[in-house]
């Protein structure tokens, strides 16, 4: 309970010298002006925006960046407080096994991700082709603060698509470039360590894996609270190792955190993505896209299961959907997990199954597949991890 401070006796005040009415009026006017100026310059800052919705987003800096809660790996509550420069995790309930997937990836980004786009002039809805001179100009920087406890990584997530995307393309299918500034606890990137390199003035361990797209992670060998670099610096190293192609398109530059345990107090305090600006004017209109409703199907397809990793009581898997010779305009994959198992979370698809039944339909952006084309969705399961799984697609 707050209390007022103890007041000392009022001092004796000497009489003020008498002033003329004109000077007194001028003094009153000056005091009023100063009071107005004080009010104008001392207005409180706008309140931060709190997001607790699983995939809730908002924009900052006039739409230049998107901030998202992105709680994809757990049903426990997570909340972030968003300001104009970044965000802070204010609540991070639950935990996941450290040999499996993290709870979430709260992030701030420029570009497009799962159909949610910023108004950034640097990365538009059609991405930036790596071979374009504009790609070489893209720079980014971030500053972060870390709590003293928890298990997490603090990382960039930079996405590349194999062909020119649109705002509705969704999950990117080329490569995921991660740049870890910090990691706490017994966690490691997807795949295995393949090299150690010096880039952007620091030393990094390079990890490579594949989850339906290439995942290339650069883990700083010493913790940093801030970093600034050219995106091309890291992509060039990826390219030299055969993990990327110059024909691919950059679709977003993101910075945030992957917590497994805890996470409250993790914060991005500043973030920027800069470059040469808008892409050249498009002289030919893009082809018209059809977006079939989820679950509607036409044509033949097949589905292939791949186990990514498992831990006590859970696992992560990917399913690749491939169109037959006639293509497909909407698909649904069905399968049955072992008794007592279930599906906890799905991305790049919509789950309608229950219990041990796996039923996943396409999203609006990945239902139309040309003959022989494929897309991938992933999911986190509970219970026993099957090494193989019979699936039907139709």
UniProtKB/TrEMBL annotation:
Residues 282-295 have a biased composition (Pro residues). Residues 1-47 form the signal peptide. GO terms for biological process: polysaccharide catabolic process. Belongs to the glycosyl hydrolase 12 (cellulase H) family. Keywords: Carbohydrate metabolism, Glycosidase, Hydrolase, Polysaccharide degradation, Signal. This is Glycosyl hydrolase family 5. PROSITE patterns: CBM2. Residues 294-394 form the CBM2 domain. It comes from Cellulomonas uda. Pfam families: CBM_2 (PF00553), Glyco_hydro_12 (PF01670). One of its GO terms (molecular function) is cellulase activity.
């Amino acid at each position: 309970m707050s209390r007022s401070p103890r007041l000392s006796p009022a001092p004796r005040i000497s009489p003020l010298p008498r002033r003329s009415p004109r000077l007194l009026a001028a003094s009153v006017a000056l005091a009023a002006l100063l009071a107005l100026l004080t009010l104008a310059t001392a207005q409180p800052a706008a309140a931060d925006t709190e997001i607790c919705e699983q995939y809730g987003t908002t924009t900052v800096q006039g739409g230049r960046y998107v901030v998202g809660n992105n709680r994809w790996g757990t049903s426990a509550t997570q909340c972030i407080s968003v300001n104009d420069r970044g965000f802070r995790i204010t609540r991070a309930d639950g935990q996941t096994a450290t040999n499996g997937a993290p709870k979430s990836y709260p992030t701030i980004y420029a570009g497009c991700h799962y159909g949610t786009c910023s108004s950034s002039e640097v990365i538009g809805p059609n991405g930036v082709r790596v071979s374009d001179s504009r790609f070489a100009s893209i720079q980014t920087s971030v500053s972060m603060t870390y709590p003293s406890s928890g298990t997490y990584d603090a990382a960039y997530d930079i996405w590349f698509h194999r062909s020119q995307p649109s705002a509705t393309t969704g999950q990117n299918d080329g490569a995921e470039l991660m740049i870890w500034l910090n990691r706490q606890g017994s966690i490691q990137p997807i795949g295995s360590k393949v090299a150690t390199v010096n880039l952007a003035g620091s030393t990094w361990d390079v990890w490579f894996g594949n989850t339906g797209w290439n995942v290339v992670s650069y883990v700083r060998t010493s913790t940093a609270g801030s970093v600034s670099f050219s995106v091309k610096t890291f992509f060039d190293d990826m390219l030299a190792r055969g993990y990327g192609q110059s024909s691919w398109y950059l679709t977003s530059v993101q910075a945030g955190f992957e917590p497994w345990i805890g996470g409250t107090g993790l914060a991005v305090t500043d973030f920027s993505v800069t470059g040469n600006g808008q892409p050249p004017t498009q002289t030919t209109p893009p082809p018209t896209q059809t977006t079939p409703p989820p679950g509607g199907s036409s044509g033949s397809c097949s589905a292939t299961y791949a186990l990514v990793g498992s831990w006590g009581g859970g696992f992560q898997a990917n399913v690749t959907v491939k169109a037959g010779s006639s293509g497909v305009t909407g698909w649904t994959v069905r399968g049955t997990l072992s008794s007592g198992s279930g599906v906890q979370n799905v991305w790049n698809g919509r789950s309608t199954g229950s219990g041990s039944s796996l039923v996943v339909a396409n999203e609006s952006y990945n239902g139309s597949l040309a003959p022989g084309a494929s897309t991938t969705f992933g999911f986190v399961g509970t219970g026993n991890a099957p090494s193989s799984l019979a699936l039907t697609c139709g």
